[in-house]
Amino acid sequence: MFNAILIEKDADGYRASVQPVDESRLPEGDVTVRVAYSTLNYKDGLAITGKGPVVRSFPMVPGIDLVGTVEASSHASVAVGDTVVLNGWGVGETHWGGLAQKARLKGDWLVPLPAAFTPQQAMAIGTAGYTAMLCVLALERQGVTPASGDVLVTGAAGGVGSVAVALLAKLGYRVVASTGRPAEGAYLTELGAAEIVDRATLSAPGKPLARERWAAAVDSVGSHTLANVCAGLRYRGVVAACGLAQGMDFPATVAPFILRGVTLAGVDSVMCPREDRLEAWSRLGRDLDPAKLALIGSREISLAEAIPTAAAVLAGQVRGRVVVDVNR
Ligand code: NDP
User: Where are the domains positioned within the chain?
Assistant: First the structure.
């Protein structure tokens, strides 16, 4: 038996609770992992509370991220005793996830824990930090360099945004951080932002083209914000778009694309191919300053505490990252 958060949906409604689960109920997979830590992402908040259609089959163990030790493996390149990290692949949505003491997974989904990080640090980074790195890689693939000019980060005080600010500053970019929380200005400056802008200047409906301001951007906000980012990019600017904190819509025109040659680079972490994941984790090991990771901060909670904390994450009441010790 092992403990897990189980999400159930039936005639009695939608609910999440910690339950002892028999190992025979674990899903198909060629690797069994003794989970050490998971984390709480926005998506896990939606899954646990039922406020968004994240869970595709019931009962479900949530948790889109996990780190742990391989207990059994029939996969050629995953050995018993390996410490592995998993992000995404539909885990916690369609396949039982990381908010449990055990998980059975496909070996192809796993990446080795980078030597630069402890298991707790890997979960403090989580999908949010790994996605921030994918965004930076997307900008680099489009030829963006620190010499190109300012880089805007929207949702800067959030999980993706904070890591993006820290990474870009370390790489030598002049970072402009957009936030709706003026109180976080000092924090963003300490992370490496050279300039703070009020997110209200980007979140209302804007013009098809605006003054050319940024060479590149990392956007985790979507909606009018992404439209205004595109309108304010410099000639041949690039935006890596990964999120929808403001909304799923994209009320833009083609003007920035056809008149300024702007590139909109989509970033998905869930089905991202293995080589890109390995590159992202290795680059996080090189380019994410551990002092900045400590500044972003994480607190550790138990499996049972993850349930009420999920609602607080959705309500925007949680600052920094939450690491879940599934064994307490
Ligand atoms: P957080 O909740 O930690 O951060 C989101 C930030 O967005 C907030 O901190 C806030 O920044 C800003 N924000 C929130 N609401 C609004 C609003 N109404 N208008 C404008 N800005 C707003 O979430 P994450 O950083 O973990 O994730 C950010 C987004 O990226 C989410 O939509 C998430 O689903 C998505 N995501 C996508 C992934 C992918 O694979 N494509 C992977 C991971 C996340 P501030 O306080 O600074 O204003």
Answer: 2-113+297-325, 127-266
**End-to-end alpha-carbon separation of the chain, Å?**
15
Q: Check if 223 has its Cβ closer than 6 Å to any atom of ligand 1.
A: no
Read off the pLDDT of residues 239-297 as tens digits, 9 standing for 90 and up: 999 999 999 999 999 999 999 999 999 999 999 999 999 999 999 999 999 999 999 98
Closest approach atom of ligand 1 to CA 242: 41
Task: Look at ligand 1, atom 4, and give the residue with the nearest C-alpha.
Answer: 158
Q: How far apart are the CA of 243 and the centre of ligand 1, in A?
A: 6
Please give the CATH superfamily to which domain 2-113+297-325 belongs.
Medium-chain alcohol dehydrogenases, catalytic domain (3.90.180.10)
Q: Is 8 exposed, middle or buried (0-12, 13-18, 19+ CB in 10 A)?
A: middle
Tell me how far apart the alpha carbons of residues 48 and 14 are, in angstroms, rounded to a whole number: 9
Confirm if 47 and 314 have CB atoms less than 8 A apart.
no
Q: If phi over 0 gives left and psi between -120 and 50 gives alpha, with beta otherwise, what is residue 50?
A: left
**Tokens (6 digits) for 213:** 């301001």
Q: Residue 14: what residue type?
A: Y
CA 20 to centroid of ligand 1, rounded, Å: 33
Q: Model pTM?
A: 0.96
- 127-266 CATH fold: Rossmann fold (3.40.50)
